TrEMBL record:
GO terms for molecular function: oxidoreductase activity. Transmembrane segments: none annotated. This is NADP-dependent oxidoreductase domain-containing protein. InterPro entries: AKR, Aldo/ket_reductase_CS, NAD(P)_OxRdtase_dom_sf, NADP_OxRdtase_dom. It comes from the Eukaryota. Pfam families: Aldo_ket_red (PF00248). The record marks 6 as: Lowers pKa of active site Tyr. Coiled coil: none annotated.
Length: 246
C-alpha cells in the first residue's frame, strides 16, 4: 500500500498545514503517509478542520481568496516531512511558473507532480518539465472521467473511440485496461477511481501485455487538449494555474 493525501485550499495558512495533515492521519488511522501533495496552488479563506465549509464562496459564487504564498506553504510542508508525518511531499495542478518558484526556494525538492492526464488530454509540456526536474508523475482522471456530473453532452467519450476498441479487441483487454497501459508506458503513475471491486481488480491487470510503438502512436493521436477539471470556481484567484499555457 502507498498512501497519498493532499493539503486542501482552505488550509494553506502555514500554521494549519501540519494540523490538517495530522487530521488526515487520524482519519486514515496511520502515523504517516507515503506522500502529501499541495492539492492546488490556490489558497482560499482559512477554515477549521470541521469540514463544514469545503469551498468558501463570495456573493458572486466564486472562491474567497486568501493571501498565503505557495513558497510559504511549501516550507510548512517541508516541516511535516521533517517531523515524520509524511515520507514525501509534492505538488498537484501547479503550472510551470509555479513549479519553478518552488524549485527556486526549496531545500527539499518536490518528489511528485499530480496532474490531469487522459487520452484526450496528454498534458505533455508540464509532464516533460517536471520529469526533467526529477519528479515522478501521477495522472489523475486517466480515463477522462466520462461519468463526471458536469460533462457536456457534446463532449466526446473516450470509450467510443474506434482506435481504442480495435486495440482492446486485439489484446483481449478492456478499453480501460488499454488506456491505463498507455499511461504506464508513458512513464506515469495512474490512479483510476473506482469503488467497484471487479473494476479495481481489472485496473491492476495491465502488466501482462504491452502496446506496440504503433499502438502507442495511434492512442496519442486522439489527444484533443481537452482539460475537464478546470476548477472554474477558483478562476478569479491570482494563482489560478490554467491561465498559463502550461
Amino acid at each position: 500500500m502507498f498512501i497519498t493525501t493532499k493539503l486542501w485550499n482552505t488550509h494553506h495558512n502555514p500554521s494549519l498545514v501540519e494540523t490538517e495533515l495530522k487530521d488526515s492521519l487520524k482519519s486514515l488511522r496511520t502515523d504517516y503517509v507515503d506522500l502529501c501533495l499541495i492539492h492546488w496552488p490556490i489558497a482560499l479563506q482559512d477554515q477549521d478542520m470541521s469540514g463544514k465549509t469545503i469551498l468558501p464562496l463570495n456573493a458572486d459564487g466564486k472562491g474567497i481568496p486568501a493571501e498565503h504564498a505557495i513558497e510559504d506553504v511549501w516550507k510548512a510542508m517541508k516541516e511535516c516531512l521533517k517531523a515524520g508525518l509524511t515520507r514525501n511531499i509534492g505538488l498537484s495542478n501547479f503550472n510551470k511558473k509555479q513549479v519553478d518558484r518552488i524549485m527556486k526556494i526549496c531545500t527539499i525538492k518536490p518528489s511528485n507532480m499530480q496532474v490531469e492526464v487522459s487520452p484526450y488530454f496528454s498534458n505533455n509540456q508540464i509532464l516533460d518539465h517536471c520529469r526533467q526536474l526529477g519528479m515522478t508523475l501521477t495522472a489523475y482522471a486517466p480515463l477522462g472521467a466520462p461519468n463526471r456530473p458536469w460533462r457536456e453532452s457534446e463532449e466526446p467519450n473516450v470509450f467510443e473511440e474506434q482506435v481504442l476498441k480495435d486495440i482492446a479487441t486485439a489484446k483481449g483487454k478492456t478499453i480501460a485496461q488499454v488506456i491505463l497501459r498507455f499511461h504506464i508506458q508513458r512513464g506515469l503513475v495512474v490512479i483510476p477511481k473506482s469503488i467497484t471491486a471487479s473494476r479495481i481488480k481489472e485496473n491492476i491487470q495491465i502488466f501482462d501485455f504491452t502496446l506496440t510503438n504503433d499502438e502507442m502512436s495511434k492512442i496519442a493521436g486522439i489527444n484533443k487538449n481537452l482539460r475537464v477539471f478546470k476548477n472554474s470556481l477558483m478562476a478569479n484567484h491570482k494563482e489560478y494555474p490554467f491561465n498559463e499555457p502550461f
